[in-house]
Amino acid sequence: MTHMKDSGFSKAYDPKEHEQVIYKRWEDSGLFNPDNLPERHTQPFCMTMAPPNVTGSLHMGHALEYIISDVLIRYKRMRGYRVLWLPGTDHAGIATQNVVEKELKKEGKTRHDLGREKFLLRVWKWKETYGEIILDQLRKLGASLDWSRTRFTMDTAYQKAVEMAFLHYHQKGWIYKGKRTINWCSRCVTSLSDLEIEYREEKTKFYYIQYGPVIIGTVRPETKLGDTALAVHPDDERYRQYAGKEILIQSVDPNVPRTEAPRLKEISIKVISDEAANPEFGSGVIKVTPAHDITDFEIKERHHEVPVIKVIGEDGRMTHEAGIRYEGMAVREAREQIVKDLEAIGLLSRIEDYIHNVAVCYRCGTVLEPLLSDQWFLKMDELAKKAREAVVSGKVVFHPKRWEKLYFNWLDNIRDWCISRQIWWGHRIPLEGETDVLDTWFSSALWPFVTLGWPKKTKDLATYYPTNVLTNDRGIINLWDARMIFSGLEFVNEVPFKDLVIHATILTSEGKRMSKSLGTGIDPLRLIEKHGADATRFGIIWQAMGGQDIRWAEEHVVAGKKFLNKIWNASRFVLQQTENSNIPDAKPKTTLDANSNIIQTFEASRDRVTAHIEHFEFGQALHDIYDFFWHTFCDQYLENAKHPELKDKKETNETLLWVLASSLKVLHPFIPFVTERVWENLPKEKKELLIIETWPR
RNA sequence: GCGCGCGUAGCUCAGUUGGUUAGAGCGCUUGCUCGACACGCAAGAGGUCAGAGGUUCGAAUCCUCUCGCGCGCACCA
User: Domain named Methionyl/Valyl/Leucyl/Isoleucyl-tRNA synthetase anticodon-binding: which ranges (predicted)?
Assistant: First the structure.
């Protein structure tokens, strides 16, 4: 029992006693920094961690992503790679600005009260206070990141790199400024790209309005004030007589003051032929409002005679051009007013209930207002081609492969990227007289090579780029992954990563998306607090079977906790049995069947685990080594080893120690703390930290 | 509307190219305080593999359809 006494091996494993101490030991060893790895670590392996927003604290999505990344990273380190896992945070333009604005609001102020400069100081202060919190939480998870290389998407060198990238595109003529109808969030007071939109089902009314000889259905009668044409499908026989002609219609006079009763006004409007009009839907005639509908704007682009009238402003209120009757009204108010007016003058034919999807801001949930605006765009045709080719040629491989479809689907229907945002927190557009900032994803897109030193030709960039693996949720395949791919190809001439692993999304036990605002989220820090990091990691990985969504079940964390205890006690037993023996350097030579068998069975299990990790099947890998360790090694072999025919034999002791030590190595990527802790107790000369021990052969 | 994924024990999920009594974890039942572990050990109950039809000597596994759930795209005038 001397091993046990010396090392303070108590009967039950308590993660709280060990985890923080062990993480400190790893960090102090400097081995998370590839520069400090032993000589034998030659071939580079690199991942640049998806930088979390400085607004956030760790949620289950992060936990899953960083845990499986860490499994891969630790595995590769043990395989002898020169491993770099690079951490950092994202300034997350709109999201962070919103958080700080909310804070200001509590003080009764807006950002405009402070002015741009003071507001930005305030955001920086916020970033300094909260930006590192999420990174500290990663330490609790056991993430083996090289903290010496931590980056931020707005650190000085990063800002310079973003500027370089913008100017590069600008010189190529791929960046242009244009008046176009874009998605506008009147709460965030900024434009959004087509990927920063979410859809929400909404019950609304569908209004049928008389337009001279035809009737038109719409959910947004207030945009009627900005109608500049009608459109019918070229093949629609019903309306052939009107196509291409100006027709006279009765409408409501928008310049009659609100205080007076509505009056009719006769106006002339052009009817054009366009395939966007669907004869099957509604009356088959559409009103064209180019300033407030993206499809309508595209129609206008095809028919240059169609004018543009902007009747809704950036503040979500009706403009002067809407007419004095409606000017200044919020969109909803204006809608009610115009419906009332149309009804009063007999132009409203009927109203139906209607359910449809409305576009909302992905950051604040406000219903978006498409409107005509002056914005900067990045031409996408060449870049999309590059991104497409990278996946077609296999330079970037999706896992599972089916997610390619989502990627191709976006690239094949791409619109130019609206890259300007009317917020203050972000990278300023580096041109004279420009006040806008860049879409936060413009800088994120450069992450894998800027963090390695670009635009400088650094040693890191030469060594670690292209990086090997990126893993993230399907939700940002186009928002981030696609843009990193074309950016990498454009600026470094190489894809940013070779394998793109789309991991599962963790849902609630009811199968719903976890949501902070609904209070349905599980807090991984609470799990760590309650069960320890290893058990949390175990529970999450156990459920990560392929790319399938996970309905969260905490019982697997509990199972993990039990498993740690099993490992702990099995190790105590082995040490007790094998007193005065050392772990053999090589696989022991055995003559007894039981010993030979357990070694063989271990090797088969190790090979399955290895193959599973190589294929990014982390759950399966864990199931395999779990099953071997508990049911084969403990339940069968350790019991046999108590019997006289095996007990106290030299080869049995060697086998016990060798299989235990080798199992700890295979288990280490999944549950690093307990394995390192037990490893520390094993009798071995010249022992290194388990994190750089060699994967068993 | 188009496409993708899923529907297997009470619950959360595995089931590789179709092939013996369909597996795991948790839960449940019955025994075990025999010096590694009761966060344990041993034994066990529990499944018409969503439904219908088809291919096959043989299907949870392949094909068709239906139903249910989730997601992406389109529509959303």
Answer: 598-696
Angle at A403 between CA A398 and CA A407, to 5 degrees: 95
CATH for A192-369 is 3.90.740.10
Chain A 327-346 residues whose Cβ is under 7 Å from strand B: none
Estimate in Å the CA A527 to C1' B51 gap, whole number.
40
Q: Which residue has the tokens 């407030």?
A: A292
- Structural Rg of chain A based on CA atoms: 32
- A206: which nucleotide lies closest, measuring CA to C1'? B77
In window 375-404 of A, residues with CB < 7 A from nucleic chain B are: 402
Round to a whole number and report the distance in Å from the CA of A84 to the C1' of B22.
43
Q: Which CATH architecture has domain A32-168+401-503?
A: 3-Layer(aba) Sandwich (3.40)
CB of A576 closer than 8 Å to CB of A20: no
Nucleotides in chain B near protein beta carbons (<7 Å): 3-6, 11-15, 24-27, 36-42, 69-77
Q: Over chain A (697 residues), what is each successive 10-residue block's mean pLDDT?
A: 47 88 96 96 96 86 93 97 97 89 88 91 92 89 97 96 97 92 86 82 84 86 90 85 85 89 88 84 85 88 86 89 90 90 88 82 83 91 93 92 88 89 92 89 96 96 96 90 95 96 88 74 89 95 86 91 94 89 88 92 93 93 94 92 87 93 96 95 86 93
Domain ranges of chain A: 32-168+401-503, 192-369, 553-692
Q: Which sign, positive or negative, has the C-alpha torsion A580, A585, A588, A594?
A: positive
Amino acid A534 CA to nucleotide B50 C1' distance, rounded Å: 37
Fold of A553-692: Isoleucyl-tRNA Synthetase; Domain 1 (1.10.730)
